[in-house]
Design goal:
This protein is an alpha+beta fold and 496 residues long. It has three domains: 132 residues, Orthogonal Bundle (434 Repressor (Amino-terminal Domain)); 123 residues, Arc Repressor Mutant, subunit A, CATH 1.10.10; 180 residues, no CATH class. The protein is 49% helix and 13% strand. The chain has 20 helices and nine strands. Strands 5-4-8-7-6-9 form a six-stranded mixed sheet. Strands 1-3-2 form a three-stranded mixed sheet. The longest helix is centred in the N-terminal third of the chain and has 22 residues. It is globular, with a radius of gyration of 28 Å.
């Protein structure tokens, strides 16, 4: 019997025992007296920690006036059946409950004592996950985002590890050469590197890298179309896996399959390590002091910073989310990444992070049309036009102030766009939004620079009440539905 099946068997038996005991009104002590099974052992059975032998099951069934056969089935009454389905789905075993101080047995004990309505709600959630084909990996990434948000996306231990590594291998300059990372992987960690790893394999044309462990020898395949900065990041991740001794890991840099939460969190740790290595904390903070204290906006600052650190656009944005909350007290922010196919109106939200839950700006995975007034979309259009004309420049950036329609909240957004190599025909934009409040104005001196344009925006066209918007790409059906609903409520109230 597989490990999860054995655990599920114990958990369901424990629930059945507790259910039958409660139906009889027996305490653990009373049941112990009727069966000669100790109170502590009965308690461990109910918590799913132990499974009794057949003679004890027979004795317990007799005392509770139920059949032994019923005790051995996975059947639970209507109230607890959603919990049984939850157990058998294996979601409880796959989710990293320990990160939040929970154990499976403790959670089930809470659920088994919950009102019937709560268990019905659990059943509804299970049904939703089935109908929308939400796999366990969806929960993995949601938990990972929550973990980042809880820690404000800053991890001191990983910062220290990256600095130790840099000191050990004398990588303390602002711009770490890619060749130095290659050399360390080869000489210290026994890697061989195949620079054109996927030629002749069209199915893998969009994979950035693949690491094949063969005993003590590791072989790293790289996509030939990676930029030097992307290559540096991937090499830094491999060094992170090695230096941090993260064995349970994905072997492709582009997710192909997710088999455990450990893979998700170890991938995050290695990625954080790589960014912290290539964008050294002390150096970046010095540069950020100069950047934030300037009274005027420097349009090229974000692109210049990428060049200074041999870093990608996303690495720069992620380092800002790491360090701004910790060192500048700027904690209300969000990060969004969109992919775009030039000459189409297709924009896909591919990554999001929110470091304040009460923000009005939330990325949406619904099939709606994001507001085109955002710079995130205009710079993608600008980049596509530049590439079409043959410009050598491949990254562009800018700043925009946005005021959210209805809520009135204002944000300063920093934006970067670049080709989404190695995937041809797709570009990406990254947006970091910072809530404009007294704290931001104190730390970011250029926030009120008139050179930064201000736009009235919303989340999606479907939810937007703006009239005569020339950039609207879909009718406001959600907003209109809500308006009609309010009118119906007023009309019904009038009849009273």
């Amino acid at each position: 019997m597989a490990k999860h099946e054995e655990i599920n068997k114990r958990l369901i038996f424990g629930l059945k025992l507790k259910q039958a005991r409660s139906n009889k009104g027996y305490s653990l002590a009373e049941l112990s007296g009727r069966t000669s099974v100790s109170i502590s052992f009965l308690n461990e059975i109910e918590k799913g920690k132990k499974y009794p032998k057949h003679d004890k099951i027979t004795s317990i069934a007799s005392a509770l006036e139920v059949s032994t056969e019923w005790m051995l089935t996975s059947e639970l009454d209507k109230k607890l059946s959603p919990i049984a389905e939850l157990i058998q789905s294996n979601i409880l075993h796959e989710l990293p409950l320990d990160m939040f101080g929970l154990k499976v047995g403790d959670l089930l004990e809470l659920l088994s004592n919950a009102p019937t309505k709560l268990n019905a709600f659990i059943g509804s959630l299970i049904e939703v996950t089935k109908n929308y084909d939400l796999g366990v990996e969806t929960f993995y990434f949601a938990v990972m985002r929550s973990y980042q948000e809880i820690h404000e996306n800053y991890f001191e231990d990983l910062e220290i590890d990256a600095e130790k590594f840099a000191d050990q291998y004398q990588l303390n300059g602002r711009k770490i050469p890619t060749e130095s990372l290659v050399q360390i992987l080869k000489e210290e960690f026994n890697y061989s590197i195949v620079e054109d790893g996927f030629s002749g394999t069209p199915e893998l044309k969009n994979i950035r890298s693949y690491m094949v462990p063969k005993g003590k020898k590791r072989k790293l395949f790289l996509n030939r179309y990676l930029s030097d900065r992307q290559k540096a990041f991937i090499l830094g991740k491999e060094l992170g896996y090695c230096f941090l001794r993260l064995d349970d890991r994905p072997f492709t840099s582009t997710w192909v399959e997710v088999t455990s939460f450990d893979q998700v969190i170890n991938n995050f740790k290695a990625s954080y390590f790589s960014s912290a290595l290539l964008i050294n904390r002390k150096n970046f903070l010095d540069d950020m002091d100069d950047f934030l204290s300037a009274s005027t906006w420097r349009g090229e600052i974000l692109v210049d910073t990428m060049e200074k650190y041999n870093a990608t656009a996303e690495m720069i944005m992620q380092r800002l989310t790491n360090l701004l909350p910790k060192y500048y007290g700027i904690k209300s922010m969000f990060f969004l990444r969109f992919n775009h196919e030039p000459e189409t109106d297709h924009y896909e939200l591919t990554k999001e992070l929110h470091l304040a839950r009460n923000q009005s700006i939330q990325g949406t995975l619904l099939r709606e049309h994001h507001c085109r007034r955002w710079m995130a979309f205009s710079i993608l259009t600008q980049l596509a036009e530049m590439m079409k004309k043959g410009y050598e420049r491949r990254e562009i950036g800018g700043a925009q102030r946005i005021k959210v329609l209805d809520s009135g909240n204002e944000y300063l957004t920093l934006n970067l766009a670049r080709p989404n190599l190695p995937t041809k025909g797709v570009n990406s934009s990254m947006t970091l939004g910072l809530l404009i409040d007294d704290q931001l104005r104190e730390k970011v001196k250029f926030v009120d620079d008139k050179a930064i344009g201000i736009k009235l925006v919303n989340e999606t066209c479907e939810r937007c009440s703006a009239r005569n918007c020339k950039m609207r790409v879909a009718p406001p059906r959600v907003w209109q539905f809500n308006q009609n609903l309010e009118l119906m409520k007023l009309a019904l109230k009038g009849l009273q």
